[in-house]
Design brief:
elongated; about 5% helix
């Protein structure tokens, strides 16, 4: 949990502030003008003081003059975090006003007050979104009901920081408190001379932010008092709970004057400006070799920062033009490197930070600019900069740079045949183990070279399952406070026209970077199936006042392996520096290049310096394998002087089809389709026009359409079987997505359909993506437990010859009919072998030498992932290599025992025979098929014990000699009588 910069319960003197400043190397802090009074707190008229420093329990103590009789209560404490330095409300998720964490303040908090000051410290979570109230004082029939409001006084940061007193807003339009930094906020309301109206003044960090002189709602709010007073909760139950931290919340029964307001803010400002100065991080300042982007605001307390250089010939501070249109252009530190062989250059960058009216800090940062690199230095720097993404979880082709930033050539070697020297990856099959490998880069230039090795882990392929459901990413619209964030929904069954939202209208992902808006989400599934990349427009129309002032070259990137858990947002620059926007990004896997094409709409500034005069809208693209490293942007579609935006694409057979908006700027805008076999061809005339007016001919003829979506229906789709879906965002009258189906993707007119949305926040989604998903993915997304899958095993084995190896095969089938993988263990007697499945089958070699006769082989599927184990067995015979029979007849020859061994050749070949007994050996050179021989062995013994004769039979087969051994038993015999 983040902590406030300074606890306000006790003032620290100027000496303490300056001592703290000394701890920050290179920081000098000017003492506030009001330093002589800074060791005194403003306590006159302090009726309610909630330090919010409790770490447990639900009581929130009131140490103001109202005392403990006016203590507050923390409601839903399990949704708050506390560390003794404030309460952080709802740090983990979104909630409505009733179910989130909030503080219930005592009733009649401001009863009898004719003037008021509300003063506190606040840190707004960058994830805070939607209609909310930071604090609210109200009179209602029922606090938990939607209606019955009898007056209210509240503050929020929705679209702008404001305090609402009845029907009057004290605010600056579209000026919000910055998020992720600590701010000190004060609101005073004092009576005017007429005695019937009040002047409300809103201060941020002790400086006047806004004022209204015509407030008619008194500080007491209602003559009957207030019964609904909250911190972190709205008077409207359906609003969002506040996400962020509050500390040191105070209510005075008088209006603090500007000097007192500044005094309240001064310690936090002084400490905040120091913290911001200490937090500045410009990277490796001892070896600056590229231009720097210099921050404009502090990251801890939001101090404003200006920059100066001690030597502009080394590093020049370039400020953007002082015009509103260029407000997003960064401050740059432009370096000039000494020539090769010259000494390194040095300079000092001075950051001057200001917070509030008086607090100033200066941070001096020494900069060393090395001379131009020689070959050895270039190689070392390129080797230092070289990095690979997610090497422990490789699930697709890898971007292997071939050239370093400083001119080195980079070549690669792989220890595994699964990874090529150019980064193409062949993943192990489903059920196979992951593969570890080493990629070795040789970085070379001008005779100098170094090597760097990267250990990588290539993950096996996921299980292939048929798509039976759909997933939808969308945004709700720009006319609502939470509308420009990402929402998710899933289809109701195998039907792309009926949907249920996942979060009841709450956003699933909220932008915390850039414009803090997420529009036009597009999701692409990797060719292997287990990685999803989502990209979105960096735009917040609601908070920023429309798209025309958007000036970003960035898109927002998220990544997931299951559509449930997403990586943190990545703010990625894709468009060129002079682009005024990067709207509606989409992507498509292009087989011919083995990578994704990422494409977006943009206009180029006619005046790039002042960021004015947008040209025609064009489609641009770049290439990526991993959505981390992107190629340089290129023009894809430029119909100048006309405009086009919002391309979506699909590959069907050998043809790529794209649907694009013809940007007319009014209701005349429509969707048209084209096709080409070369997706990246930038000659717009090489694309064959298919349907020039899809929206007008399919849906409403006098409406405008944008944000097309096109996808193929799943097998078994119940709404449009065997067809393609086309969606178009009807934006001119708030219609949202309209749907249509058609079996022929080249049809000029499609069959309109109706989309229904439940629990999704809007009747129709806006510009987004539909992707097919499996039933198991659908279950996981919806929080439904997936059952493991039963399997069956079938074993196939042929009879084997005793001196030859045999083959056994097991086929493993899953009950759901989809792919199987894992291992099968085969066993016969003492022999066993474990084999990986390949395409659902596993085979093993039965060793030679098994005992002749009937045998049983068992195949055990050991189970894998979601697949349950199973086993089966099959019988087979071990056959003799040479067929014969052998029998012994024992008899008496006088008083001696004689053994007669009969051998019959039952084979189809002539055989040789050797008969071995304890009483001698006899060979038969040739015994034709069907013939028999019965040699006798007369012992010298009058009696013999039971035993056996060994008969070996040989035969030739295609030039190879085979044999079988037969044991012929005989019983004990005595001839002594």
């Amino acid at each position: 949990m983040l902590s406030p910069l300074t606890r306000r319960t006790r003032r620290r003197g100027a000496t303490a502030s300056l001592a703290a400043a000394a701890l920050c190397v290179g920081v000098v802090v000017a003492a506030p003008i009001a330093a002589q009074a800074e060791d005194q707190d403003v306590v006159d008229g302090l009726v309610h003081h909630f330090a919010l420093d409790e770490t447990s329990g639900t009581v929130v103590s009131n140490t103001g003059s109202a005392g403990s009789a006016a203590d507050a209560v923390l409601v839903n404490p399990d949704k708050a975090a506390r560390d003794g330095a404030g309460i952080r409300f709802n740090p983990d998720d979104y909630a409505d006003a009733l179910s989130g964490a909030y503080v219930r303040l005592p009733s009649d908090l401001t009863a009898g007050m004719q003037a008021i000051t509300i003063d506190y410290d606040i840190w707004i979570d960058p994830a805070n979104v939607g209609e909310h109230q930071i604090w609210s004082l109200g009179n209602k029939v029922s606090c938990d009901a939607a209606g019955g409001q009898q007056g209210q006084l509240f503050s929020s940061n929705t679209q702008r920081l404001r305090v609402a007193a009845g029907s009057v807003n004290v605010q600056q339009n579209r000026v919000r408190l910055p998020e992720g930094v600590w701010k000190h906020v004060t609101y005073t309301q004092t009576p005017n001379a007429n005695g019937t109206t009040w002047t409300g003044t809103l201060y941020v960090d002790g400086v006047q932010h806004a004022q209204s002189t015509a407030i008619t709602t008194p500080p007491s709010v209602n003559a009957a008092g207030t019964n609904c007073n909250f911190l972190g909760r709205s008077q409207v139950p359906g609003n969002y709970s506040f996400r962020g931290s509050l500390t040191d919340f105070r209510v005075y029964d008088r209006g603090l004057d500007p000097a007192e307001v500044a005094l309240r803010a001064a310690p936090g400002n002084a400490e905040g400006v120091q913290a911001d100065a200490a937090a500045i991080d410009l990277g490796l300042t001892s070896a600056v070799v590229e231009d720097l982007v210099l921050p404009k605001l502090g990251t801890v307390a939001g101090s404003t920062i200006t920059w100066a250089s001690s030597d502009s010939s080394v590093i020049e501070v370039v400020n953007p033009p002082a015009v509103t249109s260029a407000r997003k252009v960064p401050i740059r530190g432009v370096i000039s490197r000494p020539a090769l062989g010259e000494p390194d250059a040095t300079a000092v960058l001075t950051a001057t930070l200001r917070k509030g009216g008086q607090s100033v800090a200066v941070r001096e940062i020494a900069i060393t600019v090395p001379a131009e690199f020689d070959a050895a230095h270039s190689v070392d720097r390129d080797a230092l900069d070289l990095d690979l993404y997610e090497t422990d979880d490789v699930r697709g082709h890898i971007t292997l740079p071939t050239e370093g930033r400083w001119g080195s050539q980079i070549t690669w070697e792989s220890s595994s045949e699964l990874i090529s020297p150019t980064g193409e990856v062949t993943r192990p099959a489903y059920g196979h183990p992951e593969v570890e490998a080493t990629l070795t880069a040789t970085i070379a230039q001008g005779g100098a070279s170094v090597e760097r090795a990267f250990d990588v882990v290539v993950k096996p392929l996921p299980r292939h399952e048929e798509n039976e459901r759909y997933f939808l990413g969308y945004f709700k619209g720009e006319g609502m406070a939470d509308g420009e964030q990402i929402m998710f929904a899933t289809s109701n069954g195998n039907n792309a026209l009926e949907w249920t939202g996942l979060t009841g209208g709450w956003p699933s992902l909220v932008s915390q970077l850039g414009d803090q808006g997420l529009r036009d989400p597009h999701i692409v599934r990797s060719p292997d199936g287990d990685t999803f990349y989502m990209i979105a427009t960096d735009l917040n129309w609601y908070d920023q006042g429309g798209y025309a002032i958007n000036d970003t070259q960035y898109i927002e990137v998220f990544e997931s392996n299951d559509l449930v858990n997403w990586t943190p947002q990545r703010h990625v620059k894709v468009a060129p520096d002079n682009a005024g926007n990067a709207f509606a990004p989409e992507s498509l896997w292009v087989d011919e290049i083995g990578a994704y094409a990422v494409f977006w709409a943009q206009s180029l500034w006619n005046d790039p310096l002042n960021r004015t005069g947008q040209g025609n809208a064009q489609m641009w693209y770049n290439i990526t394998r991993d959505f981390q490293t992107f190629s340089e942007p290129q023009v894809w579609q430029d119909p100048a002087p006309q405009s086009r935006i919002d391309t979506t694409a699909i590959k069907v057979g050998d043809q790529y089809y794209r649907v694009t908006k013809n940007e007319a700027g009014n209701a005349g805008s429509d969707l048209f389709s084209e096709k080409h076999t070369d997706f990246l061809d930038s000659d717009i005339h090489a694309w064959q026009l298919i349907a020039p007016a899809l929206g007008r001919t399919t849906w409403q003829p006098n409406a405008g359409y944008e944000g097309p979506v096109i996808f193929e229906a799943n097998p078994g789709d119940t709404a449009c079987p065997g067809q393609f879906y086309l969606w178009g965002d009807r934006y001119t009258n708030g219609g949202g997505y309209q749907a249509a189906c058609e079996a022929d993707i080249e049809a000029p007119t499609w069959q309109p359909k109706t989309i229904t949305m439940t629990n999704a926040g809007v009747p129709r989604p806006r510009h987004g993506t539909v992707i097919p998903i499996t039933l198991r993915e659908w279950n996981s997304i919806r929080g439904i437990e997936n059952e493991d899958v039963a399997t069956t095993v079938e074993v196939s084995v042929d009879d084997v010859v005793e001196n030859e190896e045999g083959q056994v095969t097991a086929s493993v089938t899953a009950a759901d009919g989809f792919e199987t993988g894992g291992q099968v263990r085969f066993s016969v007697g003492d022999w066993s072998d474990t084999v990986l499945l390949e395409d659902g089958r596993a085979s093993a070699t039965i060793p030679a030498g098994l005992e002749r006769g009937a045998q049983t082989v068992t195949a055990e599927f050991l189970g894998f992932d979601i697949l349950l184990p199973a086993q089966a067995a099959a019988s087979f015979d071990v056959l003799a290599a040479v067929n014969a029979t052998a029998a012994v007849t024992e008899r008496c020859a006088g008083k001696k025992v004689a053994l007669s061994v009969e051998v019959v050749n039952t084979d189809e070949r002539t055989v040789q025979v050797r008969i071995e007994t304890a009483y001698g050996t006899k060979d038969v050179a040739s015994l034709a098929p069907g013939e028999r021989v019965s040699p006798s062995f007369v012992t010298r013994e009058a009696s013999v014990p039971a035993g056996s004769a060994t008969v070996t039979v040989w035969a030739d087969d295609a030039g190879e000699r085979e044999h079988s051994v037969y044991d012929a038993a005989y019983g004990a015999l005595s001839c002594s009588r």
